[in-house]
Design brief:
- The structure is a single chain.
- The chain is an alpha/beta fold and 225 residues long.
- It is 34% helix and 18% strand.
- The chain has one domain: Aldolase class I (TIM Barrel, Alpha-Beta Barrel).
- The protein contains nine helices and eight strands.
- The protein has an eight-stranded parallel β-sheet.
- The two termini are 28 Å apart.
- The structure holds D-xylitol-5-phosphate (DX5) and zinc ion (ZN).
Length: 225
């Protein structure tokens, strides 16, 4: 099933990194009910990035709680040995950093072979040009607007220019791949991301920060921004 744009503003993908981990099932049901389009899961290994988070067992445990696609952002190296486990855990999208393995082209092909949507992730310091080399294998380009590892960091505005460049690349290739922006996204910069060409916005703190009674308004504010 190809990734499709949302009809009421950008796709909003709440990052469960900012959720209450002691009540994850309730938390993901609550953001889905509040209008989330995808569920963003940040996987960190304490090696590729300086933090440790979520294994495939947690993804598997969450799956029965939501109908929306599970968008897994893999910040682990090596990444190849774990693709199958996350796919078996029912990840719908698997996104990888080019720095997390020696053969990006092969890794993306493998993700598609496993039946998932394939994403490539660009760190703030990673040049966008490499997307051109793998564009036929990519369903999603995830542009980091913070350095990966932690939630709640400040949006790096210089990445807006990268969103524009990747948008132009995808449009020229005509592949229909989507662009997702991740890190420090809040209502005051969401509009600039969409104007630059983003289709999807990850939001951790901006959605979960205010507690369950504010999830719907927070998602609405990002869509309307
Ligand atoms: C950072 C993660 C992000 C982060 C987003 O490594 O990839 O998904 O959790 O959180 P906020 O929206 O709080 O920056
Ligand atoms: Zn992420």
């Amino acid at each position: 099933m190809p990734l499709t744009r949302s009809t009421d503003g950008p796709i909003i993908a709440p990052s469960i990194l900012a959720a209450d981990f002691s009540r994850l099932g309730e938390e993901v049901r609550a953001v889905e009910a509040a209008g989330a389009d995808w569920l963003h899961v940040d996987v960190m290994d304490g090696h590729f990035v300086p933090n440790i988070t979520i294994g495939p067992m947690v993804v598997k445990a969450l799956k029965p709680h939501v109908k929306i696609p599970i968008d897994v952002h893999l910040m682990i190296a090596p990444v190849d040995p774990y693709l199958e486990a996350y796919r078996e855990a029912s990840a719908d999208i698997l996104s990888v950093h080019p720095e997390s393995g020696p053969h990006l082209h092969r890794t993306l092909g493998r993700i598609r072979e496993l039946g998932a949507q394939a994403g490539v992730v660009l760190n703030p310091g990673t040049p966008p040009d490499l997307v051109e080399e793998v564009i036929e294998l990519v369903d999603l380009v995830l542009i980091m607007s913070v350095n990966p590892g932690f939630g709640g960091q400040k949006f790096i505005a210089s990445q807006l220019r990268k969103i524009e460049r990747v948008r132009a690349m995808i449009d020229a290739a005509g592949t229909g791949a989507l662009i997702e922006v991740d890190g420090g996204v809040v209502a005051s910069n969401a509009g600039a991301c969409v104007d630059a060409g983003a289709d999807a916005l990850v939001a951790g703190t901006a959605v979960f920060g205010g507690g369950p009674s504010t999830y719907a308004a927070a998602i609405r504010a990002l869509k309307d921004a």
